[in-house]
Design a protein that fits this description.
Elements (H helix, E strand, L loop, with lengths): L16 H4 L15 E2 L12 H11 L10 H15 L9 E4 L2 H12 L5 E6 L3 H9 L3 E6 L1 E2 L5 E2 L2 H10 L4 E5 L11 H13 L3 E5 L20 H6 E5 L2 H4 L7 E4 L3 H12 L8 H10 L2 H28 L13 E5 L1 H7 L3 H10 L2 E2 L1 E2 L8 E5 L4 H15 L3
Parallel strand pairs: 1-12, 3-4, 7-8, 8-9
Antiparallel strand pairs: 2-10, 5-6, 9-10, 11-14, 13-14
Helix pairs in contact: 2-11, 3-11, 4-5, 4-10, 12-15
The protein binds pyridoxal-5'-phosphate.
């Protein structure tokens, strides 16, 4: 590999909630155990060097005044979307800056819905959708994903249709690839969903923040590429933040082809007067959306595939009663520990705390609508992933 995915970074004191804010306030990591950050969705790898290089070069010019995004900003996005996702015909006009994907989701919903409206989302659900949409006065209607005979999470189209009809729904969030289930939706699945949305005139916010992180053998299909109708009824959200570990720099973007929706959403997101780009995050994006960035992401996806394969096999071989579907994208595992908890007479709370005590800082899956769920981030050097699973065997999933 050209890039470094094996060095264990010490992120302590370096502005990382992953290691400095343990999400279980009443539990202490026992002495002698290091913190292995496996919760919040950022990575424990150094990003591609062209990103800090671009930022550092820009900081050397010591004036950071008002600015307009450069042509390179838009060109890099157009090129990235073309090469990585096969998108044809994207132009600058359809691209718009968003401070964050979630803010973009909310702005879009403010245009598509009245306050108190119902929005269709799939369950398990990324916690950020729940918080940001409920915080803005929307009600989420959950349509549960169902595992098929091979354990693959699928949309339940009948249930979606029933809920759309009964609850008079006209807006949906589609998470593609899906966090936390790790699905990279197949074309027929997206076609079927978009056909349903067309039938009932449901507008779609397609959150594709994870689109670059697909595991070996899987390819992301942008929702807007499904059909001309899908192109016009979908507001798509992207960011370099998951791809390159840039969440702390802030800087996402939308792609909206429908001119009416685009103008209304831009107006809506302008209202706070906060939704503006930071000059250094512009350089971060152009540094990442480059040839070097592409090679780095290819290598990253190989590393993530190895970690997922290791963890998936390990769980199946060692933790009887813990169920997990093999992810196809993202770097998240979503464990269902119901059988294990019931067999061992342990609550999901107790189980999670046992992990945290030995430094495995995983995340409560209940706010994602997994009753016995735990979300685990695998974007760490393999050595740390192995160490975490050894600790789980020795001290957590014990009889
Ligand atoms: C599906 C999904 N959307 C959005 C976000 C957050 O994006 P942002 O920080 O740009 O609001 C995350 C972060 O984990 C995510 O998983």
């Amino acid at each position: 590999m050209k890039y470094d995915f094996t060095t264990i970074m010490d992120r302590r004191g370096m502005d990382a909630i992953a290691v400095d804010n343990i999400p279980y306030s009443d539990v202490q990591v026992k002495e002698g155990f290091s913190v292995i950050p496996m919760w919040v969705a950022d990575m424990n790898f150094q990003t591609v060097p062209t990103i800090p290089e671009a930022i550092i070069k820009r900081t050397e010019h010591a004036a950071y005044g008002y600015f307009e995004p450069r042509a390179e900003y838009y060109d890099s996005i157009v090129n990235w979307q073309h090469v990585r996702n096969g998108v044809e015909g994207l132009t600058k006009e359809a691209i718009g800056y968003e401070n964050g994907v979630l803010g973009g989701v909310v702005s879009a919903m403010n245009v598509l819905c009245s306050k108190g409206d119902k929005i269709l989302v799939h369950a398990p659900t990324y916690i950020g959708f729940t918080h940001s949409l409920e915080n803005n006065g929307y009600h989420l209607v959950l349509s549960s994903l169902k595992q098929d005979a091979d354990g693959i999470w699928r949309m339940d189209y009948e249930d979606m249709e029933k809920k759309i009809k009964e609850e008079h729904i006209h807006a949906a969030v589609l998470c593609s690839p899906h966090n936390p289930c790790g699905r990279v939706w197949e074309r027929w699945e997206l076609e079927k969903a978009m056909e349903l949305y067309r039938k009932y005139d449901v507008y779609v916010v397609s959150d594709e923040i994870w689109s670059d992180l697909t595991l070996t053998g899987y390819r992301h299909i942008p929702t807007q590429m499904i059909s001309e109708d899908a192109k016009m009824r979908t507001i798509a959200m992207y960011a370099p933040s998951k791809t390159f570990n840039l969440a702390g720099l802030v800087g996402s973007y939308h792609i909206i082809y429908n001119p009416y929706l685009r103008e209304r959403i831009r107006k809506e997101s302008s209202l706070s007067h906060y939704n503006t780009m930071n000059v250094l995050s512009m350089y971060a994006l152009t540094g990442g959306y480059s040839e070097a960035g592409m090679q780095w992401v290819d290598e990253l996806c190989q590393v993530l595939t190895e970690n997922v394969d290791f963890a998936y096999k390990y769980i199946r071989e060692h933790f009887e009663g813990v169920e997990v579907s093999r992810p196809q994208g993202t770097y998240m595992l979503f464990l269902d520990c119901q059988k294990w908890c019931e067999t061992h007479n342990v609550t999901i709370d107790e189980l999670q705390k046992k992990g945290v005590k030995v430094g495995v800082i995983w995340q409560d899956g209940r706010p994602f609508h997994g009753e016995y769920g735990i979300r685990m981030n695998l974007a760490l050097p393999k050595q740390l992933v192995e160490e975490a699973f050894e600790r789980l065997t020795k001290w957590v999933f014990v009889d």
